[in-house]
């Protein structure tokens, strides 16, 4: 693309959509050519404030605004349909998480992208996994890529800094319902955590999940989950998440043959083993042993640019012809969704599920819950358009 500005259209002006509007307003080399929402008043108001055009239908936005790139920030079920409409028109896509509600829809979306690239070879598809830019997570990725810990044996992640009140769940008629959102904490809050897990460790070969439905909130989806992952290389993983704890915990412990990393409370600690843990176990004559290791605090540049703006900036730069890597290519969204669907399918069936998961089985379970739902959603409370969404974003401290 040789144009000086990338013309961007935004569909969905809820809380996260407003966040996109805010940072786009002062980003170089972009022009917001349209905002779209089924709430006409919201679309009109935002368009007037930002000096752009209001649309009420995503196809109209795609057809009439002259956009180069569409940012999709609508409820989850609509992600694939809007993205596929964009792909067939040669419009670049930046999709909010999750890529879709179930892996079948995600795979259809990815196939549509690959097919569209045959006609539009330069077509770009990115997904908003901004937590990959957070300094502590970026440092973990670097250390693991360097083989610092040797053979990984265990990763345990307690991530309960996702507190959501009943007022939050009541703020939208689609929230926390099978038909409107397709799930709870795994679908809404944890796609970032799940993406980070598979980004750091890869996908497991088997998933065992335990999900509690509406345990702490008046909702029909999961608000507390514990999962166990088994990897082909022998590593095991644990995940504990909930939207009920206050204050919450974010503690990630990664154990390897040669050391351990501990991330908690804004500190990354490295425990360097004096020798291979596994070799010591095989070779020592001691029946019992204990290593006293003083951890080193790993230096992390906490001021490094991060967040949604960085993800969008990287995509805009690529569209302007710069040779840059995207923070997350769109098809990578399938990884976190595989974990989310796999955990829930395991919980539904009360058994361990292999990976790749049975997408048809999960979709059937989901559709049955939608069909038989008797849940009555409370009247949605109006959401303050000026609410600071940054308090909802995942943090490492």
UniProtKB/TrEMBL annotation:
InterPro entries: Gfo/Idh/MocA-like_OxRdtase_N, Gfo/Idh/MocA_Oxidoreductase, GFO_IDH_MocA-like_dom, NAD(P)-bd_dom_sf. Residues 7-118 form the Gfo/Idh/MocA-like oxidoreductase N-terminal domain. Residues 137-261 form the GFO/IDH/MocA-like oxidoreductase domain. It holds the Pfam family GFO_IDH_MocA. It comes from the Bacteria. This is Gfo/Idh/MocA family oxidoreductase.
């Amino acid at each position: 693309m040789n144009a000086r500005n990338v013309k961007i259209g935004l569909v969905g002006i809820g809380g996260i959509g407003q966040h996109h509007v805010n940072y786009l307003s002062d980003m170089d080399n972009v022009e917001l050519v349209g905002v779209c929402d089924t709430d006409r008043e919201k679309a009109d108001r935002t368009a007037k404030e930002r000096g752009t055009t209001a649309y009420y239908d995503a196809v109209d936005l795609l057809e009439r605004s002259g956009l180069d790139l569409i940012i999709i920030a609508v409820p989850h079920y609509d992600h694939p349909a809007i993205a596929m409409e964009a792909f067939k028109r040669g419009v670049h896509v930046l999709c909010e998480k999750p890529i879709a509600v179930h892996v079948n829809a995600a795979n259809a979306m990815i196939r549509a992208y690959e097919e569209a690239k045959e006609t539009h070879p330069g077509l770009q598809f990115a997904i908003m996994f901004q937590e990959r830019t957070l300094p502590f997570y970026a440092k973990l990725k670097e250390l693991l890529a360097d083989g610092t810990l040797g053979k990984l044996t265990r990763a345990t992640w307690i991530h309960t800094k996702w507190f959501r009140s009943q007022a939050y769940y009541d703020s939208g008629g689609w929230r926390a319902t099978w038909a409107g959102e397709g799930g709870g904490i795994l679908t809404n809050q944890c796609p970032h955590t799940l993406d980070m897990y598979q980004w750091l460790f890869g996908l497991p070969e088997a998933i065992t999940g335990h999900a509690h439905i509406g345990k702490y909130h008046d909702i029909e989806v999961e608000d507390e989950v514990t999962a166990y992952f088994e990897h082909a290389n022998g590593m095991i993983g644990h995940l504990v998440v909930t939207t009920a704890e206050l204050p919450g915990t974010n503690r990630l412990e990664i154990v390897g043959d040669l050391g351990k990393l501990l991330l908690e409370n804004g500190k990354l600690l490295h425990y360097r083993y004096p020798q291979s843990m596994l070799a010591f176990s095989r070779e020592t004559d001691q029946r019992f042993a204990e290593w006293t290791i003083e951890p080193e605090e790993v230096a992390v540049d906490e001021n490094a640019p991060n967040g949604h703006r960085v993800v969008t900036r990287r995509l805009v730069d690529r569209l302007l012809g710069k040779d840059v890597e995207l923070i997350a290519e769109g098809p990578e969204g399938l990884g976190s969704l595989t974990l989310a669907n796999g955990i829930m399918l395991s919980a539904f069936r009360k058994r361990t599920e292999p990976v790749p998961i049975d997408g048809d089985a999960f979709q059937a379970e989901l559709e049955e819950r939608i069909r038989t739902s008797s849940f009555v959603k409370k009247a949605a409370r109006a959401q303050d358009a000026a609410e600071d969404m940054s308090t909802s974003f995942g943090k490492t401290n």
